[in-house]
Amino acid sequence: MGLLCAPGISGTIPDRNVRLRRRSDRPVTIADHTGSDYEAAAVDQIDVFRPAHPVSGRYVELRVTRLPERDNGYYFELWKMEVWSGGADVSENRLLTDSDRGFLGKHPLLRPQRPMGEVAVLNCPENVTPAASWRPVEPTARVPRSGVTVNDGLFRRTLYANAHYLLQSFSVDDMLKEFRERAGMPADGALRDLHTEWVDILPGSKAGRFLMGAGNQLRWVENRELRDRMNRIVDGIEACKQSNGYLMAYPERDILHFENGAYCRSWVTQGLIEAGIAGNPKAYPLLRGFYDWFNACPYLPELVRRGGQGRQGIIASTRLYFTPVGKPEDLQVVQRYYQENFWMQQLIDKDVDAIWKYPYDRPHCYLILSLESFLDLYMATGDRQYLDAAVGGWELFNEYYEHIGGSISISELSPYPPKSYLLRSGTGELCGNSFWAFLNQRFHLLYPEEEKYVAEIEKSIYNVAIANQTADGKIRYHARLIDRKEDGTDVNTCCEGQGTRLFGALPEFIYTQADDGVYVDLFAASSFAWEQDGTPMKLTMQTEFPYSRPGAGSTLINPRLNERLEYPYPTDIQIEVSARKKTPCKIRLRIPWWCNCNAVILVNGERVAWGKPGSYVTLDRKWSDKDKIQFSLPMAFRLTLYKGSEPDFKGKNAYAIEYGPLLMAVVGDSVQNGRVTLPFPPEKLFEKFKPSQDAPLHFTIEDSGLRLIPYFEISDESFTCYPFLEDCQIEGRGPRIESIGQILPRLLKD
Predict the structure, then answer these.
(1) With contact defined as beta carbons under 8 Å apart, do 11 and 75 qualify?
(2) What's 675's DSSP letter?
(3) How far apart are CA 270 and CA 216, in angstroms?
(4) Closest CA relative to residue 369, chosen from 286, 312, 407, 291
(5) In a 3-state reduction of DSSP, which class is residue 49?
(6) What are the φ/ψ torsions at residue 465 (nearest 5 degrees)?
(7) Residue 17: which pLDDT band, with cuts at 50, 70 and 90?
(8) Do strands 719-720 and 662-667 pair parallel, antiparallel, or not at all (unpaired)?
(9) How far is it, in rounded angstroms, from Cα 695 to Cα 442?
(10) What is the residue-wise DSSP string for 443-499?
(11) Helices 314-321 & 283-294, crossing angle to 10 degrees?
(12) Which residues on neighbouring strands pair with residue 62, listed in sequence order?
């Protein structure tokens, strides 16, 4: 019998003794290295221990003595352990017990061999395609980089709170501290006395976070202090740059330490990209200089698997390619050192194990970044495999890891089986929905007529992003769905960085531009100015969305039934066209999936079209100055039965309540620990909701002493997004209702 052991440390490995037990009181030694220190030449060394004579038994024990010290304690790390007999690993998926932690059950230490082996080197030159063979795919639509103005409303308030957060969290000296230390410069000044893992072990991320948020925001709302700080940070990074172009906040040799080579590099890269888009003239040249170094650095073969969450580093290179300084080498590095063909095939096959059992690191919502990068690679090269992998990944996350309301239900450091849908801890990480929004934006550019991608963006914005921003602009980590929300923070968490980036980008999701016109995707008081075939045009949208008030009295005509539809809870949209001359242009209006009937479109008061929920209506005409488009989007309630594995909720009669695109929450004194029971069956619930005359989107729940409000408005009160309802079975017969929607319009005879 032999023992295959892959230690996860370098340097001196402690003395070890490997024994096999027939019975617990009669061990037989397989190999004994306790006589001297055991030297390991490399982290990926595979050690084989063979007995001098054949032995048999039921258990194998690895006993470690004389442990090395680290951080005032002792440690021993092991990546993989195998026990071979008869040409097979007989330990695979067996049970494990540890002397410190007790019975561990099935454990990754005894997992099957990973698809590409156990080493931490990934170098696949066969994946690289010559740039001359690429057939770029030009998206049908484009993201506006300027020209959008957000007027009074929820988006504007979110942007102003985001600016407050950015200006109050860290000083410029704080954000440049690690860059200056690496360059041997004085690193003093106005420094915040804060020491957390988010500050101390992620060098450069504070600056990357600020640049992502400020760079995005300054495209839409000018703020002198934000711009000054953005420019000073870029200047500071330039001042610390090495002669070879290297500019990260950690020494070159530390690129494999923790998440430096992925997380920190990605944040600084994307921050400089956003600063470049916002008009800083130094950002792009700095990036080009660094990536000329990076694309030839000796650390590339180990970046994916040696550092933490290495796959998240892929997005930095693919985004850089689409900047004015991008080169084919930026993508070819990705193909050679980041592309794992087995994983791409899993995604193409829609194998859910690709998400929650990704074998080379802890599974996480950060895998969405790889899907974004696959779409970048597809648009750059035209290679269909990248598109197929991204589509497969999208479907897996959408089907297995998306809560009602849109939050992503997988995080890190714990198992998240498919459709586990945990409600309290480790769910709804804001990072995941920031990535999800930008992934769906890419899909929207490729397939702008498929409404589902914008629907995902909409849910991510209202039910996760805005829901995770506090009144003073701080940012929550998780979107908990029961009990109480977390406190917001300004300590440089990952969700702060991706949250401020998403908040600053909100205006770019409202409209999308095409060669022949514009798409109206989201509904917010705003305007969009652009040139259509050389003629300046502008759309100005007036709406209170998502707020609506009962009794507004909107009445439109159903063109099929020739009957009037009265919408007691309308969301009215009015868009005014500005044009210097009569100009042909296609204005495409999104009719969202949650609209509970066909939408009637009026132009200058005349009915010109109607739109089916979940589609776009194209208005193709020559537009004159002051033309007006009008339509209403009635919102309705929906109930969906909880089907996850949260303790006390699994298998119970707990339902999520949505109103239009909004996830709703039940609040009141009787909500305790995220639990409350409404004394109604599902089919009777809607009639108990009585709208408030003073607070739009607020409802009292009759005969309960409770209220129903949007989840994004929850602050520090106790709440639940999954109230329990009475059993809906009638006389013990019939299945439990899983989903039900309310048709709000009333048909009125002429």
Answers:
(1) no
(2) B
(3) 10
(4) 312
(5) strand
(6) -65, -60
(7) low
(8) antiparallel
(9) 36
(10) HHHH-TT-HHHHHHHHHHIIIIIGGGB-TTS-B-SB---EE-PPPPB-S--HHHHHH
(11) 120
(12) 18
DSSP string computed for 706-721: EEEEEGGG--SS-EES
DSSP alpha helix (H) spans, 295-327: 314-321
C-alpha separations of 138 from 176, 480, 690 in Å? 38, 39, 49
Mean pLDDT of the chain, nearest integer: 89
Report the distance separating Cα 441 and Cα 429, nearest Å. 19
Residues whose CB falls within 8 Å of the CB of residue 52, separated by 6 or more in sequence, listed in order:
none
Burial class, 468, CB count within 10 angstroms (exposed 0-12 / middle 13-18 / buried 19+): buried
The total of other beta-carbon atoms located within 10 Å of residue 73's CB is: 7
Structure tokens belonging to residue 608: 């010109």
Tokens representing residue 456 in the block: 């995902």
How far apart CA 240 and CA 246 sit, in angstroms, is 9
Report the DSSP beta bridge partners of residue 150. Answer: 526
Beta bridge partners of 542: 574
Structural element, H or E, at residue 274 = helix 265-277
User: Which residue would you say has higher pLDDT here, 306 or 530?
Assistant: 530
d(CA 722, CA 403) in angstroms, rounded, equals 12
What is the number of other CB atoms lying within 10 angstroms of the CB of residue 296? 11
Q: Are 501 and 434 in contact (CB under 8 A)?
A: yes
pTM of the model: 0.90
pLDDT digits 0-9 by tens, 338-368:
999 999 999 999 999 999 999 999 899 999 9
Kindly state the tokens that stand for 123. Answer: 């170098």
300-353: pLDDT as tens digits: 999 999 888 899 999 999 999 999 999 999 999 999 999 999 999 999 999 999
Read off the tokens for 155. 């988006």
Question: CA angle 211-379-291, nearest 5°?
Answer: 45
User: Which residues lie below 8 Å from residue 200, measured CB to CB, with a gap of 6+?
Assistant: none
Structural domains of the chain sorted by starting position, each given as residue range(s) with its CATH number in brackets: 2-110 (no CATH), 155-509 (1.50.10), 514-632 (no CATH), 637-748 (no CATH)
Q: Which two tokens stand for residue 637?
A: 């309630």
